[in-house]
Amino acid sequence: MRRASLIRDSDSPHGTLSVLRAGSLRLHVIEPPWRDNRRNRSCIPAGLYAVLAHRSPRFGRCLLVTGVEGRSHILVHAGNVGGDVEAGLHTHTLGCLLPGLGRDHLTVKGRVQRAVLSSRTAQRHLMAWAAGRPFELEIASCRG
Question: Is-above-0.85 flag for pTM?
């Protein structure tokens, strides 16, 4: 089975930022910050997960990360920010992974936050690489 890797490099209230490598594809990813794997609030734990093609009523064609203990419906879909809502930041994810072509800061409702950019384009590239076939996603943590 093909494998992609997600290497996390920073974790803050603005979100967990990573680099995703899938074949020759290199994307940036933002998720919520680590909050002890809490549903709808946390990035997922480091580990090896199966990823499947999925059709979401809200996001359309996307990817589904399976096998995360205590969690379900973790998607890879377009979005830009993954801030900690309990710290007053904005988010486009409830525990999902948001790919982007780059990283920068965006102003969301008057607050400047870390973000991934060109997320819809990055999502299209990732979907083309996956080509509807399952793959393994290895996630390495920046913590410890």
Answer: yes
What is the distance between the alpha carbons of residues 36 and 19, in angstroms, rounded to a whole number? Answer: 21
Q: What is the pLDDT of residues 106-133, one digit of tens each?
A: 999 999 999 999 999 999 999 999 999 9
Q: What is the dihedral of CA 31, 101, 55, 81, to 10 degrees?
A: 30
Q: For the chain, what are the domain ranges?
A: 3-118+133-140
Query: What is the Cα–Cα distance from 2 to 106, expressed in whole angstroms?
Result: 34
For β-strands 3-12 and 135-140, DSSP reports them as: parallel
pLDDT digits (tens, 9 = 90+) for 99-111: 999 999 999 999 9
